[in-house]
Amino acid sequence: MRLFVTGDVHRDYDYYKIRRFREYLKNDLTLDDYLIICGDFGILWDGGAGDNFFINKVYKKFPCTILWVDGNHENFDLLDEYSVEKWKGGKVQKISHNIYRLMRGEIFDLNGKKIFAFGGAKSTDRGYGLDEKFWWKQELPNEEEYKNAEFNIQKYGFDVDYIFTHDGPKSIINDMLQIRRDSDDKFDSFLNWLSKTLTFKGWYFGHHHMDRDYEPFHCLYNSIIELI
Q1: Which of 137, 33, 148, 26 is nearest to 80 (CA)?
Q2: Rounded to whole angstroms, what are the CA distances from 144 to 9, 40, 68, 101, 200?
Q3: What is the CATH number of the domain that holds 38?
Q4: pTM as predicted
Q5: In a 3-state reduction of DSSP, which class is residue 17?
Q6: How many distinct structural domains can be found in the chain?
Q7: 19-52 pLDDT per residue, tens
Q8: Domain, as residue range, for 210
Q9: How many CB atoms sit inside 10 A of residue 105's CB?
Q10: Tell me: the pLDDT tens digits for 170-208?
């Protein structure tokens, strides 16, 4: 098994890095290898021809399995149409034979590596050119998802190998990215709590459209890196 991770894709807008990845490694990957996208995959967006093209034409023959945590730019109404099932120890929504959304607060076992997934973020561009019909209240976690995360974290003894989210904890964002961003107080508090409570080797997130390392935190956008 090989495990890769990257940041936002936005369906076709940032697909260039996925195309490069595929062309470079297409002969060395199988469906037992994984590419994790840290939110804003955008594979489900308008429910039309564009979604169908990327799901059934682009990714159907992709040489590895795609996993993703949701970001704030996903069509959650379309996502809600997919059933939830168990996979690798956690709950997922299966979009196709090789595309899985990792549900919020779930912990998965990938060949002995424990990964914790917690998608969601606040849209900072809402009201600044973002069409209101492409905004959903589900972009932020609900109480059930917070409780589910706490339950699973306790179940696994507060110890995982990797954390995958869309946004990072505000407590380190200022120093790591040299920015200040508007967010949600409850969401920020929860991510900060995770950073202080969990034992982990690496935390990977996107959202900020830049590549920065601040061990053990990693913000990804253009880069696709291999973890194992």
Answers
A1: 137
A2: 27, 22, 20, 18, 24
A3: 3.60.21
A4: 0.95
A5: helix
A6: 1
A7: 999 999 999 999 999 999 999 999 999 999 999 9
A8: 3-226
A9: 22
A10: 988 888 888 777 778 999 999 999 999 999 999 999 999
Tokens of 145: 């998802």
The pair of structure tokens assigned to 143 is 């109480």
- Where do we find the tokens 């495990």? 3
What percent of the chain lies above the pLDDT cut of 90?
A: 85
Q: Are 103 and 117 in contact (CB under 8 A)?
A: yes
Q: What is the pLDDT of residue 125?
A: 65
- In whole angstroms, give the CA distance from residue 173 to residue 185: 14
115 touches 161 (CB < 8 A): yes
Calculate helix-pair angle for 185-197, 143-155, nearest 10 degrees: 0
Kindly state the tokens that stand for 125: 């561009």
Per-residue pLDDT tens digits for 98-118: 999 999 999 999 999 999 999
Spatial distance between the Cα atoms of 132 and 205, rounded to a whole number of angstroms: 25
Q: Which phi and psi angles does 37 have, rounded to 5°?
A: -105, 125
Mean pLDDT along residues 56-73? 95
